[in-house]
Amino acid sequence: MFATIRSIEAILVDIPTIRPHQLAMTTMGVQTMVIVRIKDSEGLEGLGEATTIGGLAYGQESPESVKLTIEAYFKPQLVGRPADNINTLRVMLNRSTRGNNLARSAIETALLDLQGKRLNRPVSDLLGGALHQHIPVLWTLASGDTARDIDEALSLLVQKRHCDFKLKIGSRRVMDDVRHVAAIKEAVGEQASVRVDVNQAWDEMTATKGMAELQAAGIDLVEQPTPMKDLGALVRLSRKFHIPILADESIADAKDMFALAAAGFAGAVAMKIAKAGGPTRALEQATVAQAAGIGLYGGTLLEGTIGTVAALHAWSTLETLHWGTEMFGPLLMKDDIVTKPLNFYDNGVDLPAGPGLGVEIDEDKLAEYRRKNQ
Ligand code: MUC
Ligand code: MG
Protein backbone atom coordinates (compact mmCIF):
# COMPACT_ATOMS: atom_id res chain seq x y z
CA MET A 1 0.00 0.00 0.00
CA PHE A 2 1.43 3.40 -1.02
CA ALA A 3 1.61 6.33 1.37
CA THR A 4 -1.11 8.89 0.76
CA ILE A 5 -1.04 12.66 1.18
CA ARG A 6 -2.44 13.46 4.60
CA SER A 7 -2.06 17.24 4.93
CA ILE A 8 -0.80 20.32 3.08
CA GLU A 9 0.12 23.61 4.74
CA ALA A 10 1.16 26.87 3.04
CA ILE A 11 2.81 29.31 5.45
CA LEU A 12 3.75 32.95 4.74
CA VAL A 13 7.18 33.82 6.15
CA ASP A 14 8.60 37.37 6.05
CA ILE A 15 12.36 37.90 6.44
CA PRO A 16 14.02 41.33 6.14
CA THR A 17 16.79 41.75 3.53
CA ILE A 18 20.37 42.64 4.57
CA ARG A 19 20.08 45.93 2.63
CA PRO A 20 17.54 47.55 0.32
CA HIS A 21 17.46 45.61 -2.99
CA GLN A 22 16.59 48.06 -5.77
CA LEU A 23 15.12 46.79 -9.03
CA ALA A 24 13.52 48.64 -11.97
CA MET A 25 10.02 48.00 -10.62
CA THR A 26 10.41 48.08 -6.81
CA THR A 27 12.83 48.26 -3.90
CA MET A 28 12.70 45.25 -1.58
CA GLY A 29 13.28 45.53 2.18
CA VAL A 30 11.75 42.19 3.01
CA GLN A 31 11.35 38.86 1.22
CA THR A 32 8.20 36.79 1.65
CA MET A 33 8.39 33.03 1.21
CA VAL A 34 5.47 30.65 1.00
CA ILE A 35 6.69 27.50 2.75
CA VAL A 36 4.76 24.36 1.79
CA ARG A 37 4.68 21.33 4.11
CA ILE A 38 3.15 18.12 2.74
CA LYS A 39 2.78 15.26 5.21
CA ASP A 40 2.02 11.68 4.17
CA SER A 41 0.28 8.81 5.93
CA GLU A 42 3.65 7.32 6.99
CA GLY A 43 4.61 10.47 8.88
CA LEU A 44 7.17 11.72 6.32
CA GLU A 45 7.19 15.39 5.34
CA GLY A 46 8.10 17.10 2.05
CA LEU A 47 9.13 20.79 1.93
CA GLY A 48 8.54 23.25 -0.89
CA GLU A 49 8.77 27.00 -1.34
CA ALA A 50 7.43 29.75 -3.58
CA THR A 51 8.64 33.34 -3.64
CA THR A 52 8.26 36.32 -5.89
CA ILE A 53 9.65 39.84 -5.89
CA GLY A 54 7.80 42.72 -4.25
CA GLY A 55 4.23 41.35 -4.12
CA LEU A 56 2.91 41.80 -7.66
CA ALA A 57 5.92 43.77 -8.95
CA TYR A 58 7.49 40.86 -10.86
CA GLY A 59 4.65 38.64 -12.06
CA GLN A 60 0.99 37.73 -11.81
CA GLU A 61 1.21 35.77 -8.56
CA SER A 62 1.77 37.28 -5.11
CA PRO A 63 2.77 35.29 -1.99
CA GLU A 64 -0.78 35.72 -0.70
CA SER A 65 -2.30 34.42 -3.95
CA VAL A 66 0.08 31.43 -3.94
CA LYS A 67 -1.10 30.51 -0.44
CA LEU A 68 -4.74 30.87 -1.47
CA THR A 69 -4.26 28.83 -4.66
CA ILE A 70 -2.63 26.00 -2.75
CA GLU A 71 -5.15 25.95 0.10
CA ALA A 72 -8.37 26.52 -1.85
CA TYR A 73 -7.64 24.71 -5.14
CA PHE A 74 -4.64 22.32 -4.97
CA LYS A 75 -5.01 20.92 -1.45
CA PRO A 76 -8.58 19.53 -1.82
CA GLN A 77 -7.49 17.65 -4.97
CA LEU A 78 -4.25 16.28 -3.51
CA VAL A 79 -5.18 15.19 0.02
CA GLY A 80 -5.98 11.46 0.17
CA ARG A 81 -4.17 10.63 -3.10
CA PRO A 82 -1.11 8.34 -3.34
CA ALA A 83 1.97 10.54 -2.95
CA ASP A 84 4.44 8.43 -4.90
CA ASN A 85 3.54 9.19 -8.55
CA ILE A 86 4.32 12.88 -9.01
CA ASN A 87 3.48 12.88 -12.73
CA THR A 88 -0.06 11.64 -12.02
CA LEU A 89 -0.61 14.43 -9.49
CA ARG A 90 0.88 17.07 -11.80
CA VAL A 91 -1.24 16.03 -14.79
CA MET A 92 -4.35 16.02 -12.58
CA LEU A 93 -3.67 19.60 -11.41
CA ASN A 94 -2.85 20.70 -14.99
CA ARG A 95 -6.21 19.41 -16.21
CA SER A 96 -8.24 21.12 -13.50
CA THR A 97 -6.41 24.43 -13.00
CA ARG A 98 -4.58 27.01 -15.14
CA GLY A 99 -1.52 29.19 -14.63
CA ASN A 100 -0.19 29.75 -11.08
CA ASN A 101 3.22 28.26 -11.80
CA LEU A 102 4.76 29.59 -8.60
CA ALA A 103 2.23 27.62 -6.54
CA ARG A 104 2.74 24.55 -8.78
CA SER A 105 6.50 24.76 -8.31
CA ALA A 106 6.20 24.78 -4.51
CA ILE A 107 3.93 21.71 -4.64
CA GLU A 108 6.17 19.81 -7.07
CA THR A 109 9.20 20.61 -4.92
CA ALA A 110 7.49 19.31 -1.77
CA LEU A 111 6.42 16.11 -3.57
CA LEU A 112 9.98 15.55 -4.84
CA ASP A 113 11.37 16.10 -1.33
CA LEU A 114 8.84 13.61 0.06
CA GLN A 115 9.65 11.05 -2.64
CA GLY A 116 13.39 11.45 -2.06
CA LYS A 117 12.96 10.93 1.68
CA ARG A 118 10.81 7.85 1.07
CA LEU A 119 13.39 6.33 -1.32
CA ASN A 120 16.35 7.61 0.71
CA ARG A 121 17.80 9.35 -2.37
CA PRO A 122 18.56 13.04 -3.07
CA VAL A 123 16.18 14.96 -5.36
CA SER A 124 18.97 15.24 -7.98
CA ASP A 125 18.89 11.41 -8.28
CA LEU A 126 15.14 11.56 -8.97
CA LEU A 127 15.99 14.02 -11.79
CA GLY A 128 18.52 11.67 -13.36
CA GLY A 129 21.59 12.31 -11.22
CA ALA A 130 23.88 15.24 -10.37
CA LEU A 131 26.76 16.02 -12.73
CA HIS A 132 28.09 18.78 -10.46
CA GLN A 133 28.37 19.09 -6.66
CA HIS A 134 29.64 22.72 -6.53
CA ILE A 135 27.46 25.10 -8.54
CA PRO A 136 28.64 28.60 -9.57
CA VAL A 137 26.67 31.50 -8.04
CA LEU A 138 26.90 35.22 -8.87
CA TRP A 139 25.89 38.15 -6.67
CA THR A 140 23.50 40.98 -7.51
CA LEU A 141 24.65 44.52 -6.73
CA ALA A 142 21.47 46.55 -6.21
CA SER A 143 21.90 48.90 -3.26
CA GLY A 144 20.92 51.84 -5.50
CA ASP A 145 24.27 53.56 -4.77
CA THR A 146 27.33 53.24 -7.04
CA ALA A 147 30.01 53.66 -4.34
CA ARG A 148 28.28 51.16 -2.03
CA ASP A 149 27.96 48.65 -4.89
CA ILE A 150 31.69 48.99 -5.68
CA ASP A 151 32.65 48.41 -2.02
CA GLU A 152 30.35 45.39 -1.89
CA ALA A 153 31.83 43.92 -5.10
CA LEU A 154 35.46 44.45 -4.07
CA SER A 155 34.90 42.89 -0.66
CA LEU A 156 33.17 39.82 -2.20
CA LEU A 157 36.03 39.43 -4.68
CA VAL A 158 38.58 39.47 -1.84
CA GLN A 159 36.57 36.85 0.05
CA LYS A 160 36.32 34.84 -3.22
CA ARG A 161 32.61 34.47 -2.45
CA HIS A 162 31.59 35.64 -5.96
CA CYS A 163 33.43 36.64 -9.13
CA ASP A 164 30.41 37.45 -11.33
CA PHE A 165 28.04 40.36 -10.67
CA LYS A 166 24.60 41.27 -11.94
CA LEU A 167 23.48 44.91 -11.66
CA LYS A 168 19.82 45.81 -11.52
CA ILE A 169 19.15 48.82 -13.73
CA GLY A 170 16.21 50.46 -15.50
CA SER A 171 14.83 52.72 -12.77
CA ARG A 172 16.97 55.70 -13.84
CA ARG A 173 17.52 57.47 -17.18
CA VAL A 174 19.50 55.26 -19.52
CA MET A 175 22.73 57.30 -19.49
CA ASP A 176 22.65 57.52 -15.68
CA ASP A 177 22.39 53.75 -15.58
CA VAL A 178 25.21 53.37 -18.11
CA ARG A 179 27.50 55.62 -16.01
CA HIS A 180 26.66 53.59 -12.88
CA VAL A 181 27.40 50.28 -14.64
CA ALA A 182 30.59 51.52 -16.35
CA ALA A 183 31.97 52.81 -13.00
CA ILE A 184 31.45 49.40 -11.40
CA LYS A 185 32.99 47.57 -14.35
CA GLU A 186 36.00 49.87 -14.22
CA ALA A 187 36.44 49.27 -10.48
CA VAL A 188 36.36 45.46 -10.72
CA GLY A 189 38.19 45.22 -14.06
CA GLU A 190 38.92 41.90 -15.73
CA GLN A 191 38.72 39.88 -12.50
CA ALA A 192 34.90 39.92 -12.62
CA SER A 193 32.14 39.42 -15.16
CA VAL A 194 29.56 42.22 -15.00
CA ARG A 195 26.04 41.74 -16.35
CA VAL A 196 22.89 43.87 -16.11
CA ASP A 197 19.20 43.10 -15.63
CA VAL A 198 16.85 45.78 -16.99
CA ASN A 199 13.65 43.96 -15.92
CA GLN A 200 11.72 45.09 -19.06
CA ALA A 201 12.19 48.82 -18.37
CA TRP A 202 13.35 49.92 -21.86
CA ASP A 203 11.47 50.24 -25.13
CA GLU A 204 13.30 48.98 -28.22
CA MET A 205 14.83 52.35 -29.16
CA THR A 206 16.12 52.95 -25.63
CA ALA A 207 17.45 49.40 -25.55
CA THR A 208 19.27 49.97 -28.85
CA LYS A 209 21.08 52.96 -27.34
CA GLY A 210 21.57 51.30 -23.94
CA MET A 211 22.98 48.08 -25.37
CA ALA A 212 25.45 49.92 -27.61
CA GLU A 213 26.75 51.82 -24.56
CA LEU A 214 26.87 48.69 -22.37
CA GLN A 215 28.70 46.78 -25.10
CA ALA A 216 31.31 49.56 -25.27
CA ALA A 217 31.67 49.49 -21.46
CA GLY A 218 32.64 45.78 -21.49
CA ILE A 219 29.42 44.39 -20.02
CA ASP A 220 29.00 40.66 -20.69
CA LEU A 221 25.22 40.11 -20.77
CA VAL A 222 21.98 42.15 -20.85
CA GLU A 223 18.96 40.55 -19.19
CA GLN A 224 15.40 41.25 -20.37
CA PRO A 225 15.92 44.79 -21.72
CA THR A 226 12.42 45.09 -23.24
CA PRO A 227 8.82 44.19 -22.22
CA MET A 228 8.14 40.48 -21.77
CA LYS A 229 5.52 40.14 -24.51
CA ASP A 230 7.60 41.98 -27.12
CA LEU A 231 9.37 38.88 -28.47
CA GLY A 232 10.14 40.65 -31.75
CA ALA A 233 12.24 43.27 -29.96
CA LEU A 234 14.24 40.59 -28.13
CA VAL A 235 14.89 38.77 -31.40
CA ARG A 236 15.95 41.94 -33.27
CA LEU A 237 18.19 43.17 -30.44
CA SER A 238 19.80 39.73 -30.10
CA ARG A 239 20.80 39.92 -33.78
CA LYS A 240 21.97 43.54 -33.70
CA PHE A 241 24.63 43.30 -30.95
CA HIS A 242 27.37 40.88 -30.08
CA ILE A 243 26.68 41.45 -26.35
CA PRO A 244 24.27 38.56 -25.65
CA ILE A 245 20.73 38.91 -24.32
CA LEU A 246 19.42 36.79 -21.43
CA ALA A 247 15.67 36.26 -21.75
CA ASP A 248 13.97 36.20 -18.35
CA GLU A 249 10.35 37.40 -17.97
CA SER A 250 9.59 36.53 -21.65
CA ILE A 251 10.26 32.83 -21.04
CA ALA A 252 8.41 30.86 -18.38
CA ASP A 253 8.38 27.32 -19.73
CA ALA A 254 9.39 24.98 -22.57
CA LYS A 255 6.69 26.26 -24.95
CA ASP A 256 7.81 29.88 -24.47
CA MET A 257 11.38 28.76 -25.11
CA PHE A 258 10.35 27.04 -28.32
CA ALA A 259 8.43 30.12 -29.55
CA LEU A 260 11.35 32.51 -28.93
CA ALA A 261 13.89 30.14 -30.49
CA ALA A 262 11.63 29.58 -33.53
CA ALA A 263 11.35 33.38 -33.94
CA GLY A 264 15.14 33.52 -34.41
CA PHE A 265 16.39 34.53 -30.97
CA ALA A 266 20.07 33.97 -30.26
CA GLY A 267 21.29 34.31 -26.69
CA ALA A 268 20.58 32.73 -23.34
CA VAL A 269 17.66 31.95 -21.03
CA ALA A 270 17.20 32.48 -17.28
CA MET A 271 15.47 29.28 -16.16
CA LYS A 272 13.54 29.54 -12.91
CA ILE A 273 11.77 26.61 -11.29
CA ALA A 274 9.07 29.06 -10.15
CA LYS A 275 8.31 30.43 -13.63
CA ALA A 276 8.29 26.95 -15.18
CA GLY A 277 6.04 25.34 -12.55
CA GLY A 278 8.64 23.17 -10.83
CA PRO A 279 12.11 21.63 -11.17
CA THR A 280 11.05 19.01 -13.75
CA ARG A 281 9.36 21.69 -15.90
CA ALA A 282 12.46 23.90 -15.79
CA LEU A 283 14.54 20.97 -17.03
CA GLU A 284 12.06 20.44 -19.88
CA GLN A 285 12.71 24.06 -20.87
CA ALA A 286 16.46 23.45 -20.66
CA THR A 287 16.12 20.62 -23.19
CA VAL A 288 14.37 22.91 -25.70
CA ALA A 289 17.00 25.62 -25.17
CA GLN A 290 19.82 23.10 -25.65
CA ALA A 291 18.24 21.86 -28.89
CA ALA A 292 18.05 25.46 -30.16
CA GLY A 293 21.62 26.37 -29.18
CA ILE A 294 20.47 28.83 -26.50
CA GLY A 295 22.72 29.26 -23.45
CA LEU A 296 21.54 28.17 -19.98
CA TYR A 297 21.51 30.19 -16.76
CA GLY A 298 20.10 29.12 -13.38
CA GLY A 299 17.80 31.96 -12.34
CA THR A 300 16.13 32.81 -9.02
CA LEU A 301 13.10 34.63 -7.72
CA LEU A 302 15.20 35.28 -4.61
CA GLU A 303 14.06 32.09 -2.91
CA GLY A 304 15.18 31.21 0.60
CA THR A 305 17.14 28.04 1.26
CA ILE A 306 14.37 25.52 0.48
CA GLY A 307 13.53 26.99 -2.95
CA THR A 308 17.18 27.64 -3.73
CA VAL A 309 18.15 24.04 -2.98
CA ALA A 310 15.27 22.72 -5.11
CA ALA A 311 16.67 24.69 -8.06
CA LEU A 312 20.24 23.58 -7.29
CA HIS A 313 19.18 19.92 -7.53
CA ALA A 314 17.77 20.66 -10.99
CA TRP A 315 20.75 22.73 -12.22
CA SER A 316 23.20 20.08 -10.92
CA THR A 317 21.88 17.63 -13.54
CA LEU A 318 22.75 19.92 -16.49
CA GLU A 319 26.07 19.26 -18.16
CA THR A 320 26.74 22.91 -19.05
CA LEU A 321 25.40 26.04 -17.39
CA HIS A 322 26.85 28.56 -19.84
CA TRP A 323 26.25 31.58 -17.59
CA GLY A 324 26.31 29.89 -14.17
CA THR A 325 23.55 30.69 -11.69
CA GLU A 326 22.26 33.40 -9.37
CA MET A 327 21.11 31.14 -6.53
CA PHE A 328 22.17 33.62 -3.84
CA GLY A 329 18.69 34.32 -2.39
CA PRO A 330 19.45 33.07 1.15
CA LEU A 331 22.41 35.48 1.36
CA LEU A 332 20.14 38.47 0.72
CA MET A 333 18.04 37.65 3.78
CA LYS A 334 19.01 38.58 7.33
CA ASP A 335 18.13 35.16 8.72
CA ASP A 336 17.16 31.64 7.68
CA ILE A 337 14.48 29.16 8.71
CA VAL A 338 16.53 25.99 8.13
CA THR A 339 18.77 24.19 10.62
CA LYS A 340 21.83 24.14 8.32
CA PRO A 341 22.23 27.17 6.04
CA LEU A 342 24.03 26.71 2.72
CA ASN A 343 27.75 27.39 2.57
CA PHE A 344 28.63 29.85 -0.22
CA TYR A 345 32.37 29.85 -1.03
CA ASP A 346 34.72 29.79 -4.00
CA ASN A 347 32.23 31.56 -6.30
CA GLY A 348 29.60 28.92 -5.73
CA VAL A 349 27.69 26.67 -3.38
CA ASP A 350 27.66 22.93 -2.63
CA LEU A 351 24.65 20.80 -3.43
CA PRO A 352 23.34 19.54 -0.04
CA ALA A 353 23.69 15.81 0.59
CA GLY A 354 21.07 13.59 2.18
CA PRO A 355 17.67 12.30 1.15
CA GLY A 356 15.19 14.62 -0.58
CA LEU A 357 16.28 18.24 -0.75
CA GLY A 358 18.69 17.67 2.15
CA VAL A 359 17.23 20.59 4.13
CA GLU A 360 15.42 20.71 7.51
CA ILE A 361 13.18 23.40 9.00
CA ASP A 362 14.28 25.16 12.20
CA GLU A 363 10.91 25.25 13.98
CA ASP A 364 11.86 28.12 16.33
CA LYS A 365 12.97 30.30 13.43
CA LEU A 366 9.84 29.44 11.47
CA ALA A 367 7.70 30.44 14.48
CA GLU A 368 9.64 33.72 14.76
CA TYR A 369 9.24 34.77 11.12
CA ARG A 370 5.88 33.30 10.13
CA ARG A 371 3.33 36.05 9.41
CA LYS A 372 0.92 36.53 12.30
CA ASN A 373 -2.81 36.29 11.57
CA GLN A 374 -2.42 34.61 8.17
C1 MUC B 1 15.24 38.82 -11.84
O1 MUC B 1 14.54 39.57 -12.48
O2 MUC B 1 16.10 38.20 -12.43
C2 MUC B 1 17.17 37.69 -9.65
C3 MUC B 1 18.22 38.25 -9.00
C4 MUC B 1 17.81 39.47 -8.48
O3 MUC B 1 18.47 40.26 -7.84
O4 MUC B 1 16.53 39.67 -8.83
C5 MUC B 1 16.05 38.51 -9.45
C6 MUC B 1 14.94 38.60 -10.39
MG1 MG C 1 15.68 39.01 -14.37
TrEMBL record:
Residues 147-244 form the Mandelate racemase/muconate lactonizing enzyme C-terminal domain. The keyword Isomerase applies. It holds the Pfam family MR_MLE_N. GO terms for biological process: amino acid catabolic process. Gene3D superfamilies: Enolase-like C-terminal domain, Enolase-like, N-terminal domain. Its cofactor is Mn(2+). SMART domains: MR_MLE. InterPro entries: Chloromuconate_cycloisomerase, DgoD-like, Enolase-like_C_sf, Enolase-like_N, Enolase_C-like, Mandel_Rmase/mucon_lact_enz_CS, Mandelate_racemase_C, Mandelate_racemase_N_dom. The keyword Ligase does not apply. GO terms for molecular function: chloromuconate cycloisomerase activity; manganese ion binding; muconate cycloisomerase activity. Keywords: Aromatic hydrocarbons catabolism, Isomerase, Manganese, Metal-binding. Belongs to the mandelate racemase/muconate lactonizing enzyme family. This is Mandelate racemase/muconate lactonizing enzyme C-terminal domain-containing protein. It comes from marine sediment metagenome.
